[in-house]
Amino acid sequence: MCGYRVGTDIGGSFTDLVALHEQTGEIVNIKVPSMQRHPADAVIIAFQEFLQTARPEDVTAVSHATTIAVNTLLSCEYLAHRE
Asked: Which of 9, 13, 35, 44 could bond to 65 as cystine, CB 3.0-4.6 Å?
C-alpha cells in the first residue's frame, strides 16, 4: 500500500510536519506555532491541517521528534559547565 510517511518535530518556536508520498514523491510541509504548555496540541493541529488534503488511511508511517527536549538538555548541560 502506498501512502504518506509523516514526520513531526516540536521545536521551541514552531512544530513541523513533513509528509512524503511514497509513490509520487510529493512532499507536504506544514509549520504551526509550538505551544509551550501543551506541545502535543501543535502536533494535533498540524495533523488536522494535513488531513484536510489526505485521508487517515493514506498514512503508512509516522515518526516523531522533539528538538525542544534536546535543546533543553543542551542548555542545562551548558549552564552546569558555566558555574
From this structure: 9
